[in-house]
Amino acid sequence: MKTIVCTENERMEEILRACRICFVGMADTDGVPYVLPMNFGYQDGVLYLHSAQEGRSIETLGRNPRVCIAFCPSAELVAQHDEVACSYRMRSESVLCWGKVEFVEDFEKKVEALDILMRQYSGRAFTYGAPAVRNVKIWRVEIEEMSGKAFGVPYKA
Ligand SMILES: Cc1cc2nc3c(=O)[nH]c(=O)nc-3n(C[C@H](O)[C@H](O)[C@H](O)COP(=O)(O)OP(=O)(O)OC[C@H]3O[C@@H](n4cnc5c(N)ncnc54)[C@H](O)[C@@H]3O)c2cc1C
Q1: Residue 38 CB partners (closer than 8 Å, separation 6+)
Q2: Does the pLDDT at position 30 exceed 80?
Q3: Most informative mutation of 20, 36, 57 for ligand 1 (most atoms within 8 A of CB)
Q4: Whose CA is nearest to atom 10 of ligand 1?
Q5: What CATH class does 2-153 carry?
Q6: pTM of the prediction?
Q7: Where are the domains of the chain?
């Protein structure tokens, strides 16, 4: 089985959209990494995330806004020979996105981001109370670089 590098943006977007969560990697200025599972929305090359107004992630991003976000929809254990340990693989796909977090402060733009997030999970539209919109922190990450790989692909495929 082999690993294939995926270069088509459309395929990478499909992998992103198939995910329910992502893993947001941050790096503090002392080099200490911090990775959080989070929900997300994706539209037109931009990732949207939401959080509380305060916390370690907000402090870390205040010092260094650069992130690397990992996506992996699911993974299936496969083997070419049941008795051969090194023939076992995870059949799966994953995408990594790099960019910088900008916090969205404009009320209408926050609502747009919440719509993108909620539509991705529920497929429907919502209205939001003004205090809820004011209290939520919206993260906007324009994707600067993206890479994709498919793992455990059969040689015949
Ligand atoms: C499937 C899933 C989806 C999530 N989606 C979101 C989302 O969309 N938005 C959102 O804001 N949060 C989400 N969370 C929670 C998120 O992972 C963080 O816990 C949360 O954002 C608080 O982060 P913080 O840096 O403000 O933590 P703080 O409250 O400042 O954390 C204090 C300390 O708690 C520990 N800690 C924080 N988070 C975690 C964690 N996830 N696991 C283990 N230890 C932790 C760390 O040691 C940290 O230093 C999700 C969690 C899961 C499991």
Answers
A1: 21, 22, 23, 24, 49, 51
A2: yes
A3: 36
A4: 51
A5: mainly beta
A6: 0.95
A7: 2-153
